[in-house]
Structures are given as C-alpha cells and as structure tokens.
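Retry 2 of 3 after timeout on previous attempt. Resubmitting structure tokens to design endpoint.
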C-alpha cells in the first residue's frame, strides 16, 4: 500500500509542476528588427545583488560600453571576459537573459546561480526577469548555450558584434580553462575590430 501512495504522490507532484510551469511561462514577444538606440532603452532594470529595487537603465547602459548577454550555461563566461578585457568599472555590463523561464525558475534557481557567479564583484549585472532588455537588444534566442555581445557607440547606437556558444554542461564545469580562453579570444577579436 505504501508504494501505491508514493506513486500517487509523485504523479500528483509531477502534474502540479507541469501545470504550474505552463501557467507561469510568458509567451515570448515578437522582436521587431530596427536600429537599436539608447532613446528606446527601457526606463528601469533590476540588478543582481539589489533585489526588489529598480535602477535607472540609462545610468547603466550608456554610450561607449560593451554588453554581454548570457543565458543559463553561457553566463559563466561573463566574468572571465570582463577580466580578459580589463576595462574600467561601468564599461562592461552583463545581462542575464532568463525572460522565457517560468517564474519559479527565475526566482530561485536562475537567480541563485547568478548571485553566486557575481559574488562581490563590482560589475553592473542586470537580471532581466521581464525581458525588457532582451527585447530592447533584439536578442534572437534564449538558447542556454549562446551568448551575445553588443557595443554602444558614441552616438548611442547599439550594435550586435558577436554571437558565441559554449559546450553543454559549462555551468557545471564541463569547459576547461583553455577552452574558455580560446572561446573568449574569438569574442575579443570581434570586439577589437568594432
């Protein structure tokens, strides 16, 4: 009898999780392809380390900066790229592209991992819970393995300058230091050209 009770509990839990996921996933917005300018920047953003507060987006995303947009796996490379570029504080902004995840994943799993990755570093790290920055930048996908690098020029025009990809399992250490460095060297070549 205990086995039947356990099976029922597992089945009910699985169904509840599926229903909860289905009810809380936002439908992705259709991305309108157009020139990206700072004039269209959303008003506010949320930063890792400053939960439940909103910050003026224009004080973080401004002229002459690089923006790294990472997903579940690729976000691991953000801090390493910042170190390799060695730019001054505020010239490199990280965006966690998690807008298509169910709310409970955004709130607990993704947020916890992003907080650990950021640590005590002084990097502006946007937690794009509602997808406003993703839509502003016209990020084409939330593929967990892809990352995107954008550059804001002196005229306030934002350009996509690089799309990279990591190995599955990168967040769990499946990419060694050499592989990460080689991957990011390609990104840096593209950054230096632009």
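Retry 2 succeeded. Sequence:
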């Amino acid at each position: 009898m205990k086995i039947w009770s356990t099976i029922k509990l597992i089945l009910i839990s699985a169904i509840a999780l599926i229903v909860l996921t289905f009810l809380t996933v936002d439908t992705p917005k259709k991305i309108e392809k157009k020139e990206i300018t700072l004039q269209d920047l959303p008003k506010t953003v949320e930063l890792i380390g400053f939960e439940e507060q909103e910050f003026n987006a224009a004080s973080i995303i401004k002229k002459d900066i690089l923006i790294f947009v990472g997903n579940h796996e690729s976000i691991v490379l953000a801090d390493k790229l910042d170190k390799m570029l060695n730019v001054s504080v505020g010239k490199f902004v990280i965006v966690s592209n998690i807008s298509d995840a169910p709310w409970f994943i955004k709130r607990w799993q993704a947020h916890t991992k992003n907080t650990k990755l950021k640590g005590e570093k002084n990097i502006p790290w946007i937690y794009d819970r509602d997808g406003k920055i993703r839509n502003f930048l016209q990020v084409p996908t939330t593929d967990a393995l892809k990352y995107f690098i954008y550059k804001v020029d002196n005229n306030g025009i934002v350009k996509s300058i690089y799309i990279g990809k990591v190995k599955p399992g990168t967040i769990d250490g499946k990419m060694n230091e050499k592989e990460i460095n080689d991957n990011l060297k390609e990104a840096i070549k593209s950054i230096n050209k632009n």
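Attempt log closed. The domain at 34-193 is CATH 3.40.30 (Glutaredoxin).
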